[in-house]
Amino acid sequence: MTDDILTRIEGHAGVISLNRPGAIHALTLPMVHAMSQALLKWKDYDAVKCVIIDHAEGRGFCAGGDIAFLRNSALNDNGESGRKFFHDEYQLNHLLFTYPKPVVAFMDGITMGGGVGISQPARFRVATENTRFAMPETGIGLFPDVGGGWYLSRLEGRVGQFLALTGARLDGAECLELGLATHYLSSESLAEAKARIATEDVERIDGILGTLSATPPEARIVSNILTINRHFASDRYEDILASLEGDDSDWAMKELATLRTKSPQTCKVALRQLATSASLDDFADNMRVEYRIGSRVLVRPDFAEGVRAVIVDKDNAPKWNPATAEGVSEELLDAIFAPLPTQEEWKPL
């Protein structure tokens, strides 16, 4: 067991609190296992009527996964331990998605990568004025996993593709507007919300959160949705770049400059991933696809290089391989998405 996850029962609520503030509660494999064990234990425990997921302290809900661990795996064990991390993390994501009891996730602060994976499956997703939501993986040679393909591909228009490629950050109001959050509360109301959820009828959770909801500020992304839909209309990455290149507006130039910093390989992977996920009817099938991708991308050159440039050396000058969108072949993408040997495929808990 790990001290980085605190579990307890308050009233009729099972509470899971992330407790790794020094890393903004980024998920480690022991944290993933502790969360899964608690959820499995409470699944058939009648005294637990609902589950609350929050963070114990600090400025973020969950900043993602243990990127340093994954990079070390890519460099030193050919991705073996990294694949184990992905496999078990995706089992947690699926467990939450299919959980029979109401889950309430409080996305109070930074909610990125792995934090998205443990909040989006929840029936109730609470944003606040502190929420900063993003799937920034293409900047380090990864892709929007942990169910990202499922959630992003189901957003309005082409917003999901925009978020997957650019890693753009959303505030709480934008999360509410796009449906990534179900409620918007002031952070000052969270303690009362949790106390009432733990003691009042679980059928009242929606009403409790609705009663305590605050009026959010204007969702800034709304004014850009038509522009996003136009420029990000294609599932072909070269078309998106060309569309932005043909627009001399400040917005287009800014987004084009952002895309120029991302891994061409994983931008193309993300577009195919979202197109594939949109056609699936079963979340388990989605996670199976994402595990195939993750198993391959983890040991491709861009991941270790992206983490080096952004997180280790912080020079923000990654040398991507392939270096251009045109250099990323359909054959490479086919290999990344190909089924694994039967015994290596991802399986739910």
Automatic annotation (TrEMBL):
SUPFAM superfamilies linked: ClpP/crotonase (SSF52096)
GO BP field: L-valine catabolic process
GO molecular function, one term: isomerase activity
Catalytic activity from the UniProt record: 3-hydroxy-2-methylpropanoyl-CoA + H2O = 3-hydroxy-2-methylpropanoate + CoA + H(+)
UniProt EC number: 3.1.2.4
Residue ranges of domain Enoyl-CoA hydratase/isomerase in the record: 14-337
InterPro entries the UniProt entry points to: ClpP/crotonase-like_dom_sf, ECH_dom, HIBYL-CoA-H
Record flagged with keyword Isomerase: yes
Keyword annotations: Hydrolase, Isomerase
Broadest EC class assigned to this enzyme: hydrolase
PANTHER family tied to this protein: 3-HYDROXYISOBUTYRYL-COA HYDROLASE, MITOCHONDRIAL (PTHR43176:SF3), 3-HYDROXYISOBUTYRYL-COA HYDROLASE-RELATED (PTHR43176)
Protein name per Swiss-Prot or TrEMBL: 3-hydroxyisobutyryl-CoA hydrolase
Naturally occurring in which organism (per UniProt): Sphingorhabdus pulchriflava
